[in-house]
Amino acid sequence: MKSIIFENCYLIEFPKLGDNNRGFLTAFEINNKFLFAIKRIYYIYEIGDLQGIRGPHAHKQTQQIFFTLNGKAKYHLDNGIEKKEITIDKPNIGIFIGPKIWHYINDFSVGIIFLVVASTYYDENDYLRNYDQFLDYNKHRL
User: Fold this and answer.
1) Is position 103 annotated as part of the catalytic site?
2) Which of 57, 59, 103, 140 is catalytic?
3) Domain limits of the chain?
4) Distance (Å, rounded) from C-alpha 95 to C-alpha 26?
């Protein structure tokens, strides 16, 4: 199931299989739910400052899906026109964040673990790390 946040940014609910006794399994297949070939996988854990912020930035080309595997956090999403906040606390919910979406994460719970799959290898030139630069980049490419 897909729930649109705004163009180029949406929630994806992946199947949750199992039960409370045996546990649950969530699987995804590259050709089924993903819109891109995965080039990079990384995870973030042991965040010491639970009141801090991860991010903030946008990408010129990279597509990503964020999963909150353990705990909860608030995702802040901005396409240059609208801003939305979404709290995720289920490991079978992914947030697809496409290019030209300013994003950051905060309001972390203890034990938070994120998993991110990305369409590109790390390239610093793909990052927009200044909000005004992001707005200017989007203005010229809308």
Assistant:
1) no
2) 57
3) 2-16+30-139
4) 15
